[in-house]
Amino acid sequence: MSMTSEQAAWFRDTFARLVDNVDQALMGKREVVGLVLSAMLAEGHVLLEDAPGTGKTSLAKALAASVQGTSNRIQFTPDLLPSDVTGVTIYDQQNHKFEFHRGPVFASIVLADEINRASPKTQSALLEVMEESRVTVDGVAHEVGRPFLVIATQNPIEQAGTYKLPEAQLDRFMVKTSIGYPSLAVAERILAGAVDRNPSASLRPVITTQAVADMADLAATVHIDPAVARFSAQLVEATRADEGARLGVSVRGSISMMRIAKVYAAAQGRHYVVPDDIKALALPVWAHRLVLDPEAEFSGVTADRIVQNALGAVEAPLARASA
Question: Nearest CA to 314 among 242, 213, 224, 218?
Answer without folding.
Answer: 242
